[in-house]
Every structure is written in structure tokens, then in C-alpha cells.
Amino acid sequence: MLDKIKGNLVVSAQALEAEPLHSSFIMGRMAVAAKQGGAAGIRAQGVEDIIEIKRVCDLPVIGIIKRNYKDSDIYITPTKKEVEELLTTNCEMIALDATDRIRPNGERIEDLISLIHENNVLAMADCSTLEECIKAEQLGFDCVSTTLCGYTPYSEQVDGPNYAIIEQAIKLIKVPIIAEGKIHYPEQLERVFKVGAFSAVVGGAITRPQEITERFVSFIK
Ligand SMILES: CC(=O)N[C@H](C=O)[C@@H](O)[C@H](O)[C@H](O)COP(=O)(O)O
């Protein structure tokens, strides 16, 4: 999968229960549209969505499950349970929160990475700081992403992608750095590749019409 997404765009097609497009059928169509538009991979949430996407589209998939637990702030593929569910979908890569926070039930990130690798699936680290990116490589992740930059209370809040982290991570880490999060305009995508990102994931700006509409409306004086 990494060869396929190198230098290319991955489209994240996600609509949670509270969102207007919440539907596996629609996420499948989103994936088909993304492929038609030139995407090289899909990031998707939940077993049903991934199965539908795989049924209608032959692009490789980064799978996640978002689930909330009372004893942790981690919600992207937090525990072994979500990893096991994702392993039933044939997704090529599993992304999980690799932030420096306590996981539910005191589970260890090392055990989740081992479980993913034992099943010949790639593991992607969703990070929020440069330190977490460095640690993720040491833990054995196959690639590192900036998905959670600005989404943990201790990470730098930036409007748009955090180019500085991508640039620094590239100098310090050997595994591929994937830019993800807050890429809202094509110029921002161009710039993350310019600073050296291996690949990039764009979500809401392509697959969340409520977000796109809001962006247009915000330009009305
Ligand atoms: C922080 C978090 O939960 N991010 C999620 C991770 O899977 C998704 O909701 C985002 O849409 C995805 O990361 C792509 O980012 P953007 O939609 O900004 O292009």
C-alpha cells in the first residue's frame, strides 16, 4: 500500500452517526468518486463502511474505528477490540492513536502494533506532536501521520496543516510521514508535498459537504 500512495492523495471518507451522510452506501460512493478523481487510497471508519468500500472500489484502505471509552481520551482505534474488528475487513493498513496518553483498560500500544503486524497488515501512527512521531517510529509503526496535531490539549493549535512538524519529522524519521488533518485547499496539499510529505490524507474538504458549505458561507460578508 505504501508504494501505491507515495506522492499521491488518500481521501478520508467518514461520516459518524451524528453526521448527515452517515451511511455505508454513501461512503462507498465517496470512495468510487475519490478514485475517479485520482485518489490512490481511502481512509475509512468502521467495519461496515470498510466492507462496502472494498466491495465497490479497489483502492487500498486505511481502516480505523472511532470509539469512546470512559477511562481514556483516546478514540481512534483505542484497544485490541477495535484492531480485531478491523482485521476482519481486509484493510491494508490500520491507523491508531499513537499519542502519549493512557489507553482504555491500560492497554499497551506495543501489543496492538504486534497484533496488526502478526496479521500482515501495516500500522499507521496518528500523532499530535513531533515527539510522538519520533516515538512511533521507535515503536515499529510503518508510517507516521500528523492526524492529531491540534487535537490533543498539549499540541500546538494551528489553522491548517502543521508544516513545521512535517518538515522536522522528515529530517528525524526514516519511515514515511503522511500529512493528515486540516488540509482544506489544494494549495495546502501542494505545500505539504513541497515540504516532503510522503503522502497526504484529505477528509472533510472532499467528503463532508456540511463542512464545505460552511466554508463557502463564511465568505459571505
Ligand atoms: C482529529 C480526527 O478525529 N480526525 C479524523 C481521523 O480519522 C477524521 O475526522 C478527519 O476527517 C481526518 O483525519 C482527515 O482530516 P480532515 O478532515 O481535516 O482533512
TrEMBL record:
A Pfam family per the record: NanE
Keywords carried by this UniProt record: Carbohydrate metabolism, Isomerase
This protein's record includes keyword Isomerase: yes
Metabolic or biological pathway: Amino-sugar metabolism; N-acetylneuraminate degradation; D-fructose 6-phosphate from N-acetylneuraminate: step 3/5
GO molecular function: N-acylglucosamine-6-phosphate 2-epimerase activity
E.C. number: 5.1.3.9
The protein's enzyme class: isomerase
Catalysis: reaction(s): an N-acyl-D-glucosamine 6-phosphate = an N-acyl-D-mannosamine 6-phosphate
Entries under HAMAP family matching the protein: ManNAc6P_epimer
Functional description taken from the UniProt entry: Converts N-acetylmannosamine-6-phosphate (ManNAc-6-P) to N-acetylglucosamine-6-phosphate (GlcNAc-6-P).
UniProt similarity note: Belongs to the NanE family.
Protein name, as recorded: Putative N-acetylmannosamine-6-phosphate 2-epimerase
High-level lineage: Bacteria, Bacillati, Bacillota, Erysipelotrichia, Erysipelotrichales
